[in-house]
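In practice, a research group might receive sequence data for several interacting partners and want a quick structural hypothesis before committing to experiments. The following worked case mirrors that situation: the sequences arrive first, and a predicted assembly follows.
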Amino acid sequence: MFDDLYMINSYFCLPDKIKELKIARKELETIFYSQNMATRTEYTDIGIVTRAFRLEKMVIEHNMAQELLNKRIERNELRHKYFTSYLDSLAETDVKRLYQRHALNQNVFVTEQLEEQTIDEINEIETCICLREGIFVEEKLQKVELTDDFETNLDVLTQLFAI
Amino acid sequence: MQTTYRLSQIQYFLRQWKMLEANRNQLMPNEIKRAKLLFNSLSQLEKEELKLLKEKYYDTNNLANFDKNRKCYTTAIPVNDEVVAYKLNVESFDYSNERRQVERKLGEIMIETGQKILKTEERIYLAINPMLHVKHVDFPCDDSDFITGDIVLTTSFLNDEKQVFNMTDPLTVKLVTRLERCGFKRVAIN
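A structural hypothesis for the assembly, expressed as tokens:
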């Protein structure tokens, strides 16, 4: 409940995130192939020692790192795909307002109903991605709604912020 | 979660009362801490006392401190004492006196609830008054109830010099309970 403040903003930033990850994937290869793979001698505490490039260890580590990055890119692309398909279903002015408010950080009025709808949609996408990996998701705290009565409101708030 | 509260510090909390309630779904982490302290201590006041505070701090339409990131106001400007006194049909001098008494009572309750909240936290400092924090205490080597060795205190506000008590360890829990019996109080780390 408290942590969906920057949720919509992060979803609008997804294309930039994917670009950064792809650049990181390229850098990983250049780093791997720019190291010395020849056998060499080293001066250590024991004396002069020959040391070789550990092929089995290094290649597996490199492959693992690549796999992790590929998974992250795949996940973010899925998020982007579902989110754009949701934005297509909205009216054009609504999309423009959401973009101006959350991505460009401008002071534009957006109705509460629209914001709740988008946050619900984002939560659904997140649960979808978690279930693909086989992770069980806990249910989020629901939004607290207050009445016009002052004293019952205080009771509700003390329960919300209980020690 | 301090050991003492000045009157202006209590009023600082009360000014945020209305907007903490309105922005309850999008609070920052430090605001959640403040809300915990405020709402838990406000509910312990009596109805008549609450009404006095509510007229001044809650029933206003003047909002201030606009937050650009969240697009919402964070504080409310309180109503003037004379206006509230005119509403309640009492003299403004009497009203402001009563209000100050209630605020002082609220401050005492806030110290108690602060200690209650600190009991659930894992890492804490200890202090004997607002100026003097514990710098170093020896851990007891046996099960006796006496504290062996000296207790070193500091007046500095630097966090490096104060000793951190980790409450997940059962030995430190024993030590802290002994020190609390001597009059030391818990202080939050940040």
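Before designing any experiment, note the following. Chain B has two domains: 7-120, 123-187. Residues 7-120 of chain B form one domain.
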